[in-house]
Amino acid sequence: MSVLVRSERFGDVECDDAATVVFPDGLLGFKEEREFVVMPADPEGIYSWLQSTRTPSLAFLTTSPTCFFADYAVEIDDAEVAEIEILDESEAMVLAIVTIAEDRATANLLGPIVVNTRTRRARQVVLADSTWSTKELLGEF
Amino acid sequence: MLVLSRRTNESIIVNGNITITVLEIRGDHIRIGIDAPREISVHREEIHAELARANKAATGSRAADVARLPRPGV
User: Fold this and answer.
1) Which of A60, A130, B11, B44 has the fewest CB atoms below 10 angstroms from its CB?
2) ipTM of the complex
3) Nearest chain A residue (CA) to B52
4) Considering the domain boundaries, does residue B74 fall inside one?
5) Is residue B25 a part of any domain in this protein?
6) Across B34-42, average pLDDT
7) Is the pTM of this model over 0.80?
């Protein structure tokens, strides 16, 4: 099965159902945005887009944090894991939201997105006790 | 909003399983203890606000930006 997603950036996109992720609680600051599709952003598979299925103008660029930060690890509370039904860490995919400023790109490693690849449920988790910030440098332009 | 007055070492019980205790009051600084089941997530409000701000700041990426993004190890 596929779904038609309207995107301001990419036009109308046919997406496989398997590309859909559901955030039961939305994203922080975007509580109403509960459904997104994951779309590859580059041929190397380093970046992907999270496109809202509800708001054509809303898309986040994301990356896999361990591509850039080998020592990055996400320790999640039971509360957060239960919400997205993760039974085993092998089911979890971690994404960091990328912010592009004029002269640099940064990744939000304080509030990563954890996707359960089995159930396609996802949650933006808060790493309250970590030293990572919302603006870890990926590179300068 | 429900407003309750509490003194040091007095508590509020929420939902029968979450206990919030005023541990210490020093001027405008109050230490609060929260005893909740592990599946209840508890965070400072500021961290939620910071993440909401960060998310809002990240909505402007354009498709054309991807080409100039850094690659790992480069």
Assistant:
1) B44
2) 0.91
3) A29
4) no
5) yes
6) 87
7) yes
